[in-house]
Specification:
mainly alpha, 4 helices, about 0% strand
């Protein structure tokens, strides 16, 4: 949903054409600056929610394994594999990719606030170079979450084979 918010906020800000009093010396596009400030707050909030949900998912998986969760169906095996892949990608996104991207955005905003348009635009260009990768990561996460949901629903409709007592 954060991508949807960004898709709404950026065109809206271009249409509104704001001029920010907090950035009086910045000669660059204030609509992009404004939209980026709003969208970054949404993305950060979503990242916090994703971290909480991922922690709950991992905790649940650990609890299930500790209490004897059986991988006795192909659906269960796929669920665990896809969940682990999703958690790995989310960990990369949160702990490796986003810190650098956040640092770049902070540089953009700091130099814009100081009225150093040339240096602010260097950071803005660095961010834009990373935007495609960010979009791909978020798209992959959305796809993997959708697969997790489908597998969860599927597993609710299939019966687990009883454990043999041989």
């Amino acid at each position: 949903m954060s991508g949807v918010v960004a898709a709404i906020v950026f065109p809206l800000m271009r249409k509104l054409d704001p001029s920010l009093a907090s950035y009086p010396g910045y000669e660059g596009d204030h609509s992009t600056l404004t939209a980026g400030l709003v969208a970054s707050r949404v993305f950060f909030t979503v990242d916090v929610i994703q971290f909480i949900c991922a922690s709950l998912a991992l905790g649940t998986l650990v609890l299930l394994v500790a209490t004897g969760y059986s991988l006795n169906t192909l659906t269960r095996v796929f669920r665990v594999i896809v969940l682990c892949m999703t958690l790995a990608l989310l960990s990369y996104h949160l702990f490796f990719f986003m810190p650098g991207l956040t640092q770049t955005l902070n540089g953009y905003w700091d130099f814009a606030a100081a009225g150093n348009t040339a240096q602010a635009d260097v950071f803005k260009d660095q961010f834009l170079e990373s935007h495609t990768s960010a979009s791909r990561i978020l798209g992959a996460l959305a796809l993997m979450i959708a697969i997790n949901i489908v597998l969860a629903a599927w597993s609710l409709t299939t019966r687990a084979e009883p454990e043999s007592k041989a």
